[in-house]
Amino acid sequence: MRASLIQLGVDDDETAAARRERAAALVRRQQGSDLVVLPELWPVGAFAYEAFDREAEPLDGPTAEAMSHAARDAGAWLHAGSIVERSSEGPMYNTSLVFSPAGALVRVYRKIHRFGFDKGEAVLMGAGDRPVTVRLPDTTLGLATCYDLRFPELFRALTDAGAHTFVVPAGWPERRREHWTLLARARAVENQSYVLACGTAGTHAGVQQAGHSIVVDPWGEVLAEAGHDEEVLTVDLDPGRVAKTREEFPALKDRVLGR
Q1: Residue 9 resides in a domain
Q2: Exposed, middle or buried by CB within 10 Å (0-12, 13-18, 19+), for 225?
Q3: Is 259 domain-assigned?
Q4: pLDDT tens readout for residues 104-136
Q5: Angle between helices 152-160 and 177-191 (to 10 degrees)
Q6: Does residue 232 fall inside a structural domain?
Q7: How confident is the model over 202-251, as pLDDT tens digits?
Q8: At what angle do helices 16-28 and 62-74 cross, to 10 degrees?
Q9: Is residue 144 part of a domain?
Q10: How far is 70 from 52, CA to CA, in rounded Å?
Q11: Contact (CB, 8 A) for 203 and 229
């Protein structure tokens, strides 16, 4: 299975509409990939709190429309990162969108763990309330977003739900980049799963982004890692690697707590 992580650059001077067009063009260029991934809140910026209300959109809004067409044109599964969702219930959510190669929106995930410590996302957005998986022909994806990476219980729940590959779009700041790579590897090792962690380049409301999107295998080995700038990271994954790792080193069978 070939996966492409688009480490999109975010410029505070670029409009959301212009960035949608640019992101869609980048997705279309990934023909030949089975799965394409974009970062967290790339249309507006993960730290652009003052713009959340203005840029919020429904699940059938302009970002979903653009990404649906791009997924269909690329012929790939597309994890389109996340948007600021204006829900019909009232609150906003940090919501991930997953499209099929036919362009259908097949799954949404509302971020469970909101970042901000009583400000920003933590007070402006509602919280998701359930783990979400997506079955692909060659693997089952477990969905998480940015700050979720710090909460291993979510990833264990996704593992119990059948996930073999975790997809983690993020707007992770440069000042905590070492945590980003450390936690991505930890989630891979403890669950014996692939981790596809896709960050952004550039800045979000003046907050420098870490970049360094990373792909980790079920043994914790880094298969590929991006730098600071905008780039596309493409990696071939072995769908049988997860089962083989779990069979050769059956640590998950020895669980006592949380079963």
Answers
A1: yes
A2: middle
A3: no
A4: 999 999 999 999 988 889 999 999 999 999 999
A5: 30
A6: yes
A7: 998 999 999 999 999 999 999 999 999 999 999 999 999 999 999 999 99
A8: 10
A9: yes
A10: 24
A11: no
> What's the domain count of the chain?
1
Contact by Cβ (8 Å): 139, 159: no
Between the two ends of the chain, the Cα-to-Cα distance in Å is 31
Q: Is 198 a catalytic residue?
A: no
E strand spans, 55-188: 77-86, 92-99, 105-110, 133-135, 140-143, 165-169
CATH label of the domain that carries residue 242: 3.60.110.10
Is the Cβ–Cβ distance between 110 and 127 less than 8 Å?
A: yes
Closest CA to 121 of 153, 151, 85, 89: 85
Residues of the domain holding 142? 2-254
Q: Which of 40, 55, 57, 230 is catalytic?
A: 40
Task: Render 122-152 in DSSP notation, one character per residue.
Answer: HHHB----S--EEE-SS-EEEE--GGGGG-H
pLDDT digits (tens, 9 = 90+) for 158-167: 999 999 999 9
User: Does the annotation count 111 as an active-site position?
Assistant: yes
Q: Find the catalytic residue in 55, 85, 111, 121.
A: 111
Torsion sign over Cα 101, 68, 15, 81: negative
Q: Which of 55, 85, 146, 230 is catalytic?
A: 146
